[in-house]
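Encode chain A's predicted structure.
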Amino acid sequence: MVALILCIIGVSSAGDRCTSPIYCEGPFLARMQNARVTNDSKAFVDMPLKAPVAEVLAAFALLPANSSTAVYKSFIDKWMYPAGYEVYTVMPSDWVERPRFVDELPSSLQPFGLSLHSKWKSLIRSFNHTGLCDGCYSSLHVPHPFVVAGGRFTEFYYWDSYWALQGLLVSEMTMTARRVVDNLLYMVDTYGFVPNGGRMYYLNRSQPPVLALMVKLLFEHTGDVAWLARALPTLDKEYTWWQEMRSLIYTGVNGRQYMVQRYMADTWLPRPESYREDVVTASFLPPKERQGCFRDLASGAETGWDFSSRWLRDWNQLSTIRTSSILPVDLNSILFVVEKSLSQLFAITRNTSRSDYYHNQAGIRASALHQIFWNEYALSWSDIIIASPVTGNTFYVSNFMPIWANAYHQSKQQALQIIQRVWPKIFFSGGIPTSLIQSGQQWDFPNAWAPLQQFMIDALDGLEMPEATKLADQLSIAWFNSNYCAWESTLKEGGRFFEKYDVTHPGQAGGGGEYEVQSGFGWTNGVLLKLLNTRSHLFQIPDCTKL
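Encoded structure for chain A:
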């Protein structure tokens, strides 16, 4: 498939970026991170200041440039609070001790369901900036409490919130769910888009744009038309941001030009929260190529898949990352569903012109998904490497996203056959891995992630065919078993839910990537709660020694 890029649309303005000399760029950040003053790079940029920025920088200027790590650590002990100082756990105002779904579970699974539900009590947070000066913390203000992922992540994350929302609704925590969505709407109204997460160092990138899907889900649950009407102009604004800041014009095989989206962070610097890691990664490159590497590393974080062989020229070398040179099939599938959802939501508020606009946009994108992303040779969809005559035919879960989006030109039977063709290779006893490539990156084999399992289950359910439902049930059982076994094996620690799992060893946490596997875990919990609410009749306590 050969296609021509006609033009790139949108360059982010300086207003989208964080320029803090403490948390985003400059000598203070560089020297402290390179000196390894904290074991985790992220911990450093989550530490609030005890004094105004100018005062801290003046004291820093007195330190010799070749100061030891011990000297730098002494400095931050004096001038900075511990990471997460301004974040505290709050009890949800709508907490339900025993939501209805628990009593609908088989009695043997009720302790598991209650334990899963109880995790919300440790994942709802708020910021308290009282006593902290302006510019003295990296957290972004939001008006309501929020859900964190867990572990090292003490702020909200954009696409994580989508799955957390689904779990909160199962847990009957409708007010908390609404606050989660209202916080993200506030982000758009304040910054023009939803940042990657609730820290100022994330202001140069977003994440998969699922806010419209969250608004639709919450509206379907509450029926609050007045709230929906207030939210829609903000969703318009976010959609415009993706059109203006992340778009390019690409020519499909039919010769037609399409506006499609990609991930492309607005930075040429190391990610502050992974500063040391990015500097080391780029050190393998000639100096003139390092800025592009930094941008593509941040762009890789914008995808949510940080990191995967999807974005690499050489699957074994992170320094070969080329995220901004790839058109992602999943991003454009999500935007198709966004467009369909916005058309439906505007119709509810009787805004016919906007409803018609988004209906037309969805039709154009459905054509683009077929004319650009469909790979006739591989009989599947795939990402597109910009300006390359070669299209990928490597398996990634993202290849099936047009089926999830119901944006395919084939019949339902043909769509099912596309999945069935690879199912024996991709289905494991612990779920479906992100890819079949063992690159050492956390979004590759053997790791499986809750959002991608749910995407696959929803794609299969959407085909509305017995054979597809059977596969969705099979995957749901495998995912439940893996999560249950992990929980059971960690009961002495309160029962843990991990951010990712190893498909080859059900019940075992995944590995790879830049940091140790985290538990908590917001989106894992949300997906599990949804499965318990819809498919608990399939589940029984597994024999974890035999999986």
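The longest strand covers residues 5-9.
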